[in-house]
Amino acid sequence: MYHLGLDIGSSSVKVAIVNAMTGENILTLHEPQNEMEILSLSKNWAEQDPDMWWEYVCSAIKRVINEASIEASEIKRIGISYQMHGLVVVDKDGVPLRNSIIWCDSRAVDIGNKAFYEIGKDRCTEHLLNSPGNFTASKLKWVRDNEPEVYKKIYKYMLPGDYIAYRLSGDICTTKNGLSEGVLWDYKNDIIADWLLEYYGIDTSLTPRVVDNFSNQGKVNIKGAKETGLPIGATITYRAGDQPNNALSLNIFKPGEVAATGGTSGVLYAISDSLKSKETSRINNFVHVNYTNKNPTLGKLLCINGAGIQYSWLRSLSDNITYEDMNRKAAEIPVGSDGVIVIPFGNGAERMLNNKNVGTHFCNLNFNLHNNSHLYRAALEGVAFSFVYGMEILKNDNTEIKVIRAGNDNLFRSEIFSNTVATLINHEIEIYNTTGAVGAGRAAGLVDGNFERFGENITKNDHVMTYRPLHKKRPYQEAYKKWKSELEIRLKHQ
Fold this sequence. Notes:
- The protein has 494 residues and is of the alpha/beta class.
- The protein has helices spanning 50-67, 109-119, 121-128, 136-146, 148-153, 160-169, 176-181, 194-200, 222-228, 242-249, 308-316, 323-331, 372-396, 415-425, 436-443, 451-462, 474-492; strands spanning 2-8, 13-19, 25-31, 47-48, 75-82, 88-90, 100-101, 156-158, 173-175, 185-186, 191-192, 209-211, 235-241, 257-262, 266-272, 284-287, 298-304, 341-345, 359-363, 403-407, 429-432, 463-467.
């Protein structure tokens, strides 16, 4: 028997087949082979067609079943991970009314900031543990204000993972996690924050019914089976945003444990059991996968938009160069990149910078001295320094840090990046051979609530290596100090 894991990202759809008994990863693949298109119809906008996700979900599932040489009928459960904070709106027939406004879209920043001011910092902090910010609720308010004809036709709003679950099963539902990601969960009362929707003038009936993370969330129907190749009746038993799911994949469940991600965006996701925050404008607090009323486990999420996407952009400027080539060239350059500094925030407003849109800057270039190798190293260092800067913000929010774990992919494959972060924060970084799709597939079988045993299996089977702080810290400290100074100059001019 097998479980299927889906990870709906903004760059690709990943799918994994795992052994239901052992959790062994049988096969993981992704669609498309290149990256999915992100539409930017106006400055600071980012949209994707939800049906594009579904198209790649269908092709990826068919491929993985075929290439793994298994019978589709042996897939019994499905877990779904997805890009957080996105907005999908559908009519009564379940048809999307517009493109999804995805996580890195910045159009609703002013809406969220105004709500934070008018509702009041104390109420938002006490009940939402966040500013309404640039999240799903604020994006829905933008649609109401700017596309009234679309708003009138909305039957339900959803997160991206909710939409994929709907396409599989025909059932529209969401989770407490999903609502918290949209800043639509009232932690103090442990209910949907209908009062925020009412403040925005949004009909509260647009919210889907809420199901538990680990539960029967719907079964694959005839239409879903026909389009994906999955068996009718396969059950969706798990759903979570990509960062809570990434933490689950890395055995991150307890206070003091931190999951790090260096993909398109960079993320630090720290577990806490405190329903308090003094950095609500820069850090997000979300329901973690093992959250309960009696055990209110939160994920404190700090996002860095301009991470892997910047390195990908640099790669696109050269023909036929691989990330391994770039890393090798970067390793030829000394710490500090011979003075080149990259401020990497060129992917929209940065919440950790109080929603300021600082942009990307290449500083101190000398055309007689520097070449593309300097740019590669400075880019890796710039993103690493952003992680360190974010860690300082987390610590200022009374976040305990005991363990940092990351997947063996994306930026963490780079020794320069990982060594820089580990050395400056003076913590080991444990690297695990897992992915969000594998984690979602494994979580589909986590129906007994035994997180301890689930985590022990990950630690036992998936640990690859550990990056330890280097002894020669001074060059890294000096380079970080210069980088931070350049950043703060730009922040003052915002």
